[in-house]
From TrEMBL, chains A, B:
The keyword Transferase applies. PROSITE patterns: POLYPRENYL_SYNTHASE_1, POLYPRENYL_SYNTHASE_2. GO terms for molecular function: all-trans-nonaprenyl-diphosphate synthase (geranyl-diphosphate specific) activity; metal ion binding. InterPro entries: Isoprenoid_synthase_dom_sf, Polyprenyl_synt, Polyprenyl_synt_CS. Belongs to the FPP/GGPP synthase family. Pfam families: polyprenyl_synt. It comes from Meiothermus granaticius NBRC 107808. Keywords: Magnesium, Metal-binding, Transferase. The gene is sdsA. Signal peptide: none annotated. This is All-trans-nonaprenyl-diphosphate synthase (Geranyl-diphosphate specific).
């Protein structure tokens, strides 16, 4: 297949995805409809559906790839709705967070509605191994998010906890998107494992880059002021290094949740000066390289190249 | 089977249920463990597991009945955790609501954790029709809860909305408990339909009684002051009749959410005086009768008798 044909296939897959999503989340309850509109029109980058498409294309024909993309995206959307309470996010995909418009209650329950629609899709797909895989990803997602809350509340900062959190809250679903395609394709174990590894490592790099930019990015790129994680007491890989290197100064900044004028700027300075920033960029690069390495198990194809390109994009605009 | 043997079977089923529940919800994340303890030790009446047991016993042997009971109870428990945000409940099963101890965030995400464990159970049971049935019940549950919120927010009070709400928030899961057993037993359609009808009607009567007592019950029976629904702007069958009969006076009480001294007492008086209370008791009795009628499709058994007795209990302590 030529790259041009391939790109057209991706476009039509994503168009079909948007159309089906709109139908799947439709409810007779008006308040759910409001959330639904927010979700459907807000769009987002649809990273997970793209992963499902590319993983499927790399394997050849995969039955129910569209339904898998919908199921994964619905778990993701539900987690955004449930996680808005924690994050106290002022913006989410550039729009006012749903819970500010319609209240926490409707947000949480609409998230439950999306999860019920995801279960209906799984029943329709009719693959019990995929049900188990989704259950496992959803378990890691919720555990990762609770752990993040617990670590912030109790100050249990460690690299091990950070790794568990980013795997749970981001990488687990990316892995599901890729591995799920392999399950539906009944792919050989080596291909399934390769895609699972790719999804997990790519997801980790993705979240590490997000966390990096949360501190080091400009507010224009972020669409919100830098340092959001510090204000929520969330330690990321970069601030973990800073806490080790400057326990007193950075510890004090964390205890006051970066509330003093200049706190975030000071963390940025220390990150550059101590080379903590550089180190984290290096760690992301390694994760991207491992992800690409995992793909070597799959036969060369336009889709595999695209997965590689997707992973490499995590290295852009970091340094 | 004698009634004595039968009661022993129920006891051992419930004991096995508690033990498995403890294992199923176990998590390495400490904060989830706190919620879990609350849930496991708090117990509750386990109405849904009882229904699964009785429906299964009425059908003969049902594979995976215990796993079905766990799955249904986990959806119910998750909904309690997610619904605590709405209800602003001061007590839940006589204990401080989980979210007051550990925060809304942990509560919501721990609910998601329970839902993921429920999906894992479904994968283990391995029956795709049951996955579809659970998805449908979970959809109605979330839709019913959002609708309740919407109706309170917009004042869209009607009997039709009330019926949809009680079916969604309570009866759908009761129906799942009974119909799910029939699906696992591969029971004849007539038996499946009979159990589905019984579960739905019993669940409706159950919620109608709950709503009746919320206004008319003593605070000792309720374990909280009467009139909680009024304070949340929730119209139930009884207050719906009062709004029709005394639009100005009762309308004013609802608009101020029963905040004035004597408001709840006045509603109680009007309910007795206008016979609205009596009418609702009558409606509950009809629902119970229909539920028992549905059971007639099943062969007579100790389990069927117990289901009947369970339904009749909804008529106790009302008048």
């Amino acid at each position: 297949m030529s790259v041009k044909d391939f790109t057209q296939d991706l476009e039509s897959f994503l168009a079909a995805f948007e159309e089906r999503l709109r139908k799947v989340v439709k409810s007779e309850v008006e308040f759910i409809g409001l959330i639904e509109e927010d979700l459907v029109t807000a769009g987002g980058k649809r990273v997970r559906p793209r992963l499902v498409f590319l993983a499927s294309a790399a394997l050849g024909e995969v039955p129910h790839a569209l339904e898998l993309a919908l199921a994964v995206e619905l778990i993701h959307s539900a987690s955004l709705l449930h996680d808005d309470l924690i994050d106290d996010a002022e913006t989410r995909r550039g729009r006012e967070a749903a819970f500010r418009k319609y209240g926490n209650a409707v947000s949480v329950l609409s998230g439950d509605y999306l999860l019920s629609r995801q279960m209906a899709l799984l029943a329709q797909i009719g693959n019990l191994e995929l049900v188990a895989l989704c259950a496992e990803a959803a378990r890691m997602l919720s555990e990762g998010e609770v752990l993040q809350f617990q670590v912030a509340a109790l100050g249990e900062y460690s690299l091990a906890n950070y790794e568990r959190i980013i795997h749970g809250k981001t990488a687990a679903l990316m892995q599901l998107a890729c591995e799920g395609a392999a399950v539906l394709a009944e792919a050989p174990l080596a291909h399934r494992e390769a895609l699972a590894r790719f999804g997990a490592l790519y997801g980790q790099a993705f979240q590490m880059r997000d966390d990096y930019l949360d501190l080091m990015g400009s507010s224009e790129v972020l669409g919100k002021p830098a340092g959001g994680d510090v204000r929520e007491g969330k330690v990321t890989r970069i601030t973990l290094r800073l806490l080790e290197a400057y326990p007193e100064e950075v510890g004090a900044i964390f205890r006051r949740r970066g509330r003093e004028e200049g706190d975030v700027r000071r963390l940025q300075e220390l990150a550059q000066q101590s080379k903590a920033a550089e180190e984290v960029i290096q760690a992301i690069a390694e994760r991207v390289e491992q992800a690409i390495g995992a793909l070597r198990e799959l036969p060369r194809s336009a889709a595999r190249d695209q997965l590689e390109a997707l992973a490499k994009r995590e290295l852009v605009r970091l340094s």
